[in-house]
Amino acid sequence: MKVTLQTVFLFTLSSAAIIQLSSCSFFVTKPEAVSTGIIDADNPDIQYIGRFDFSDPKKVVFDWAGVYICSKFTGTSCSIRLADSTDEYAIIIDEYAPRLLTIDTSKVYKVASGLSDSVPHTIVIQKRTEPLVGAGVFMGFILDKGATLLPLPERPGRRTEFIGNSITSGYGVLGDTTCHFSPQTEDAAMAYAAMTGRELHADYHLISYSGRGVVRNYGDKNKTSINPMPALYDRTCYFDSTMKKWDFKKWVPQAVVINLGTNDFSTQPCPDSAVFVDAYLALIDTVRSLYPGVTVFCVSGPMIGEPCTHYVREVVMEQQRREGRDKDVFFVEIPRSMMTDSDWGCDVHPNVYGADKMADVVVRMIRLRMNW
Questions:
Q1: Among candidates 136, 73, 57, 150, which has minimal Cα distance to 101?
Q2: Please, what sign has the CA dihedral across residues 268, 274, 280, 286?
Q3: Do 280 and 272 form a contact (C-beta atoms < 8 A)?
């Protein structure tokens, strides 16, 4: 993959279509109330990819970065019914360039108008920002009077899950080294994980939150933290620990990529190596028990370095020793040396260029080990 800041690889309804993105095509849509053609969120022709809470099927709740909603509709216009106040979304109509939807206090946002009435149209709604920015409630669509949703093709057979932190969430991926975090510079669709999923023609889930580690979160004064990433892994939504836990049987990936450790060792005091390794091994055991036959890829990313890279490699070696096998857990190193000055975004996180380099490495490893 070769990417520039003017190019977006956005997985849409047909597969990994390459969509050109220019600054003039990336605009904020305006809210508009419409009173006809209401389609509820529980319509069977709406596809939800990611973790969503359907406790109220008319008001579908979500907050993880990168979740996306797909539909196909007739008519000349489309509005979405969405309750949120802080997040940002990408809206893709008919596989054209994504448009930025900035949320306010409205509940209805008109995202398409003046379309041809002679052919059906597709829409993808993707949450660009992670749970620390906010959560959303999707209530459905408003179409032209008499218009309807149509069935979509089945989703891809390949499925990948990514467990990570800010890098997986797309923190600062749209910025440069002069900026700090903002919702405007975060885009999960442009992080290495989403790029990897699209390049593999696979649906993907991102279970990621900035600052989380295997046992220690960023800046903690202790060697271990309350609620590191493994403690959040079973949540349907990050923001509500009391919500019904995620049903892992609903969506079973063939590949899981774990990219954790950066925050454990980014500041002092660092966790003891044995504590880190044991917790990482426990996470792998959890993943493999939930997804029998899954292949796990343990990534040491470009923000980590030593000693964490050594510990992640040790985790994989220990897993292989314990299980007497070497075909389902693999180590993937993305060294900092492969990154250049132009590959960094806000707070020295990978930008689009750096994310593309990371995705190249992970894609090659998954293809090699899984014959994809």
A1: 136
A2: negative
A3: no
- Per the CB < 8 A criterion, the answer to whether 81 and 141 are in contact is yes
The encoded tokens of residue 357 equal 């380099």
**Residues 6 or more apart from 36 whose CB is under 8 A from it?**
142, 144, 145
Q: How far apart are CA 147 and CA 128, in angstroms?
A: 28
Cα(77)–Cα(357) distance, rounded to whole angstroms? 38
pLDDT, tens digit (0-9, with 9 covering 90-100), for 156-171: 999 999 999 999 999 9
AA letter at 325 = R
Helices (H), 209-272: 229-232
CB-neighbour burial class of residue 345 (10 A; exposed 0-12, middle 13-18, buried 19+): buried
Structural tokens at position 354: 């750096």
Q: What is the DSSP letter of 193?
A: H
Q: Pick from 89, 83, 250, 290: which is nearest to 184 by CA?
A: 89
Q: What CATH number belongs to 7-150?
A: 2.60.120.260
Given a contact cutoff of 8 angstroms between Cβ atoms, the answer to whether 191 and 162 are in contact is no
**Angstrom distance (rounded) from CA 368 to CA 200:** 12
Whether CATH 3.40.50.1110 fits 159-370: yes
Reading the block at residue 168, the tokens are 């997986």
Nearest 5°: phi and psi at 369? Answer: -85, -25
How many beta carbons lie within 10 A of that of residue 331, not counting itself?
A: 18
pTM of the model: 0.90
Burial environment of residue 183 by CB neighbours within 10 A (0 to 12, 13 to 18, 19 or more):
middle
The beta strand positions in the chain, using DSSP E, are: 7-9, 18-20, 38-40, 47-49, 60-62, 68-73, 78-83, 88-93, 99-102, 108-112, 121-127, 136-143, 149-150, 159-164, 203-208, 255-258, 295-300, 329-333
- What is the domain partition of the chain in residue ranges? 7-150, 159-370
Query: What span, in angstroms and rounded, lies between the C-alpha atoms of 184 and 173?
Result: 10
Q: Read off the pLDDT of residues 284-328 as tens digits, 9 standing for 90 and up.
A: 999 999 999 999 999 999 998 889 999 999 999 988 787 766 579
Query: pLDDT: is 16 or 144 the higher one?
Result: 144
Backbone phi, then psi, for 298, in 5-degree steps? -100, 110
169-225 residue pLDDT tens? 999 999 999 999 999 999 999 999 999 999 999 999 999 999 999 999 999 999 999
